[in-house]
Design a protein that fits this description.
The complex is a heterodimer of chains A (about 120) and B (about 110). With about 120 residues, chain A is an all-beta fold. Chain A has strands at about 5, 10-15, 20-25, 30-40, 45-50, 55-60, 60-65, 70-75, 85-90, 105, 110-115. Chain B has about 110 residues and is an all-beta fold. Classes of the chains: A mainly beta (about 120), B mainly beta (about 110). The interface of A and B includes residues 4, 44, 95 and 100 of A.
């Protein structure tokens, strides 16, 4: 089955700096890669996703890049703000015509943005 | 309601007891998923439903775990003969289609003493 590794496990930045979180996956057939933000006491919330036919996607301060050859993808947050502090999870799946919701998650990154 | 609703939010039980966790998805969402999240880990897939049927239950850890969705809306995750290792946050998510975004509830935290 799929295996997703995520680094770093913790990341501390100053407000206004950029933050980068990296993930690798094992199944070359995986074709959908979402990123989730989880705040304390809440369920994960989708912040951005990318499909395997795209190399990069951007939404305001958030961007995701995908390198299919190397089987890794990254989340980039620019101009970080204290409200970006949360746990971030990458995930991957081979939808294969069935479901994009059967995801394999990484272990998570605790991001702390200091004012 | 506006989002996915899960009850109870917290459940403490004793080893060997039976537990039911309920998920009320967003109205109109046909796909429903259950995940389990241990402390400090990412969620792990358990089972998903498309309508009333379990389309994939390959993530259920053993036959003590069972889930139903009899009318294609509310789902119940059932755990028999609970063990201390079952302690975790159980997350439910729903999606309008099989290729749509997942919307997670706030979870049910299960503690088995």
């Amino acid at each position: 089955g799929e295996n997703v590794e995520q680094h770093p496990s913790t990341l501390s930045v100053q407000e206004g700096d950029s933050a980068v979180i990296k993930c690798t996956y094992s199944d070359s057939a995986s074709n959908y890669f979402p990123w989730y933000k989880q705040e304390l006491g809440k369920g994960p919330q989708l912040i951005i996703d990318i499909r395997s036919n795209v190399g990069e996607k951007k939404d305001q301060r958030i961007a995701v890049t995908l390198n299919k050859t190397a089987k890794h993808f990254s989340l980039h947050i620019t101009e970080t703000q204290p409200e970006d502090s949360a746990v971030y999870f990458c995930a991957a799946t081979n939808a294969g015509g069935t479901s994009y919701g059967k995801l394999t998650f990484g272990q998570g990154t605790i991001l702390t943005v200091h004012p | 309601g506006a989002g996915v609703s899960q009850t109870p939010s917290n459940k403490v039980t004793e080893k060997g007891k039976y537990v039911e966790l309920r998920c009320d998805p967003i109205s109109g969402h046909t796909a429903l998923y259950w995940y389990r999240q241990s402390l400090g880990q990412g969620p792990e897939f358990l089972i998903y439903f498309q309508g009333t049927g379990a389309a994939d239950d390959s993530g259920l850890p053993n036959d003590r775990f069972f889930a139903v969705r009899p009318e294609g809306s509310v789902s119940t995750l059932k755990i028999q003969r609970t063990e201390r290792g079952d302690s975790a946050m159980y997350l439910c998510a729903s999606s309008p289609t099989l290729t749509g975004e997942l919307f997670f509830g706030e979870g049910s935290r299960l503690t088995v003493l």
